[in-house]
Each structure stands twice: as C-alpha cells, then as structure tokens.
Design brief:
The chain has 359 residues and is of the alpha+beta class. The chain is built from 15 helices and nine strands. Helices cover 58% and strands 13% of the residues. Helix 4 crosses helix 7 and helix 9 crosses helix 14. The two termini are 36 Å apart.
C-alpha cells in the first residue's frame, strides 16, 4: 500500500512539473536591444486580459497567434525606445494606474487609499480586484501599462511632426455636422450662483452663516465674487457659479427631485431663493441667467459663456481620431521594420505552435 501511495504522489508531482514546463515554454525571443523571452504563460495572461476587456469567451489558435505577434511588436518597440533613451518612471506608471480611481473619487488618491477603498467595497485585495477585472495580477497589469506608455512616448517622439500635421478637413467637419445635426443642441439651461454651508456638528451655526451670506448678497450682488474668492470657500462653505440643464439626469446629479428642478426653471433672472435645509447642509441660490433650448449651428458655441464653437469642437474630435489612427499605423510600421530574423527568434512555428495554442 505504501508503495502505491508513493507511486501516486510521484506521478502527481511529475504531472505538475510537465504542466509548469509547458506554461514556461518559450514561444519567441525578442533581441533588438536585449534578450527577452515570451512564454506560453505570458501569452495566456494576455489572452485572459483581452477576454476581460472585450467580453470574449474563446479565442481561436489564429487569434492567439495574432496576440503573440502583438506582444512581439510591443517588446520590439519598447526595446527600440530604451535604445533611444525613452523611459517611463514607476511614479508615472502609478499615476496612470491611479488616474481612473482619482477621477471617480474626485481627488488624487494613493495606492494604499485605493487598497482600503476596494477592500471596504468588495472585500478583496487590490491584486484580487485587478485580476477580476483585467485577468492580470497587479504586477503584470502595471508592467503592461508601462509598456504601453513607453510605446506611446516613443512613437509620439519619432513621428511627432507627422502626427501634428494630421487634421480634419473642412469637408469632413461639415459632413460630420450634417450627419449628426440633431445631436448638437442646447437643453434649456440656467446659470446659478449657489451657496452651500455644511451642517457639521452645529446646525444652528451653519444656518446662521448661510442666512448671513444670503442677506449680504441681497444688499450687494458683488458679494458673490467675494464669497467665491475668499479662503473660507471650500472650508466653511462652498460657493460658486453653476450651469445646469433642465433634465432628469441633472436633477439626479444635484440630488434634487424633478419637481424641484422644474420649479427652479420657473424662476426669473435675479431671483434669490430662501435659505433651504437638506440632510447635509443649508443653501440658497441666485438665478443669474437663463438660456432657451435650441438647435446649434456650426458657428454657435457648444456651451454658454465659452468660446469653443461647434465647428471647433467637431474639428478637435475628428483630428484626435485621425491622429490616433495615424499613431496606430505608425506604431505598426515601426514594429514591422524592427520585426526581422535578427531581432526575433521564433521558438515555435507552424504545426508545433498551433498545437501549443490549442488550449
């Protein structure tokens, strides 16, 4: 019996070793500037990542091979970047990684703060959370992010003049406007001066401050600028101008009911509201200006009291799209030039590679 058990465990260990060896099988070695191996395990990680990003359930061997070529090209471009002195610091990578979280929170956050937030909301570690949404570990995801930033900087540096020269034509701008004319419009809008005083631990003091500010404004409307620019703004109270639209989405953003928003839009310019109480603060508002809903022409500004016209807005967006398309092609062309037999050693080809990609 002892011999049978020993044989069983030996077989299990052997199987595990074969599996590990298979995952570490080298598929290609990139050696433009240094020698870097792409393994089957790394390709599997990339496949998992793409599946998460695009919601794909399975990949054919041909699609996996395309991803492998993409990985080879990425390494070639990163090595070329290093050869030309283009580098990205870990701090830049961390900032890029945290940018989405910072936008959601509304301020710059640290990785430890994100870790605590993720733990509180999901019960997972940051590494577990990243694996769940990306198919990669936190370390692998940051490495991938760093390579993308390096490539972006390198291609932008090499092709900067050509990229800057790419721009939307007048005909393209006018055609885009004609095909999307109904989407360029103003909802009925209103510009407010809004003051909010947080209750904190003293409701009466907050109410008193809000009413005092309201009374000061009624006596002299120029006080609005004083309130906005005072160092107490964002500390003792919040005061500022706000452009709002007559939509349910806007009401939700303000945490108001549709009825309250409709009531607001019934007010005339220069109307000063009473001091009202919410669950968290006391507030009052002033109607500064009202804007009627209308369809926009190419020469109209996209938003009241700004200088960007519809024409400029379309031009900027189309130009960015065309520049991104040019950037992608430029990166592909640069990688193609580098993808030579002297720079890439394909360890697995043909049927041998296809067999390995059938997992």
């Amino acid at each position: 019996m002892k011999k049978i058990i020993t044989t069983f465990f030996a077989s299990m260990i052997a199987c595990a070793a074969v599996f590990a060896q298979s995952d570490m099988t080298p598929l290609a070695v990139v050696k433009h500037n240094k020698s870097e191996t792409i393994t089957l395990k790394q390709l599997k990680t990339r496949v998992a990542f793409v599946q998460k990003q695009y919601g794909m359930e399975s990949f054919s061997a041909e699609q996996k091979q395309t991803l492998l070529e993409n990985m080879i090209n990425e390494k070639l471009l990163c090595q070329a970047a290093a050869k030309n002195g283009v580098a990205i610091s870990d701090t830049q990578v961390d900032n890029a990684f945290l940018s989405t979280f910072s936008q959601q929170v509304g301020r710059q956050v640290t990785e430890s703060e994100v870790e605590e937030l993720v733990k509180k909301q999901s019960g997972k570690t940051l590494d577990e959370y990243v694996r769940e949404i990306s198919g990669m570990s936190l370390v692998d995801y940051k490495a991938y992010l760093k390579s993308q930033l390096v490539i972006q900087n390198y291609v932008s540096q090499v092709k900067q003049n050509e990229i800057r020269a790419v721009a939307a034509t007048d005909e393209e701008i006018r055609n885009t406007f004609e095909m999307n004319k109904s989407s360029f419009k103003w909802d009925e809008m209103m510009k407010l001066f809004l003051v909010m005083v947080p209750k904190g631990s003293n409701d009466m003091a907050a109410k008193s401050l809000c009413e005092d500010m309201r009374n000061q404004y009624i006596k002299d409307s120029k006080k609005a600028a004083v309130f906005i620019n005072a160092p107490e703004n964002s500390k003792s109270y919040q005061a500022g101008e706000l452009l709002i639209a007559k939509t349910s989405q806007q009401a939700q953003a303000l945490r108001w009911s549709d009825e309250k928003l409709r009531e607001l839009f019934s007010r005339k310019e220069a109307y000063v509201s009473e001091t009202t109480e919410t669950t968290t603060d006391f507030q009052f508002y002033v109607v500064l200006k009202k804007y009627d809903a209308k369809l926009l022409s190419l020469s109209d500004v996209v938003q009241p009291e700004t200088t960007v016209t519809v024409y400029d807005y379309i031009k900027n967006n189309l130009s960015q799209q065309k520049q991104m398309q040019y950037f992608t092609k430029a990166a592909q062309d640069l990688a193609k030039e580098l993808n030579t037999d002297s720079n890439v050693d394909h360890k697995k080809k043909g049927d041998a590679l296809t067999k390995l990609l059938n997992w």
